[in-house]
């Protein structure tokens, strides 16, 4: 069965859900951008789920094996159109990055059975987990190396007119024995120049003051978040302000004023 026939079968299963735009998103990913897909009747070509490795507001991440290679499989938390479309939106944003970069998450396949996608697996886990681990013994050289890689990833995104808007340690993964950093989770990413950006997006603890106050902001908000991560690395603690019970919004207003 070719992709057009399989795509038609998928669309037929979505007919009853008149409130979703999954059809348009799949059309863009599969037919316009020619992203490889999983939906094979051949049992020897099926994806093997190994174990769950993470979860977020709309998605669950699983460690999987497909065609003798290990991937991270991000799938919707539920079959609700909001969950499906949120992940397909993220997949589209990843395919906006047409060139590969060693520190940017890469998408390999769309899974038509789950409406999820397969991406790089980073066996070192998140930077946050590594930093708060009492047994981690990273050095100043490691911190500078990670900070440089993150800055290079952001410079690359900005050169492609893409703003991440949620640069934080939870969205930074490690691999290659903790030497290589990968920026992930593009659910809040947006194209620069499409519209006036004033909406409050991101995580309070790393949010730039102009984003927090819903005033006009640019890609410089990513640089502010980079500086927070850099400070966390140097201080070897997650809380960048040194006061665990402090309201992040309160501190941001102090910084702004």
UniProtKB/TrEMBL annotation:
Family: Belongs to the protein kinase superfamily. STE Ser/Thr protein kinase family. MAP kinase kinase kinase subfamily.
Signal peptide: none
Keywords, alphabetical: ATP-binding, Kinase, Nucleotide-binding, Serine/threonine-protein kinase, Transferase
Protein name: Protein kinase domain-containing protein
Biological process (GO), any one: JNK cascade
Superkingdom of origin organism: Eukaryota
Listed PANTHER family: MITOGEN-ACTIVATED PROTEIN KINASE KINASE KINASE 7 (PTHR46716:SF1)
Organism: Adineta steineri
GO molecular function: ATP binding; enzyme binding; MAP kinase kinase kinase activity
Pfam family, one: Pkinase
Ligase as UniProt keyword: no
Keyword ATP-binding (UniProt): yes
Domain Protein kinase: 47-257
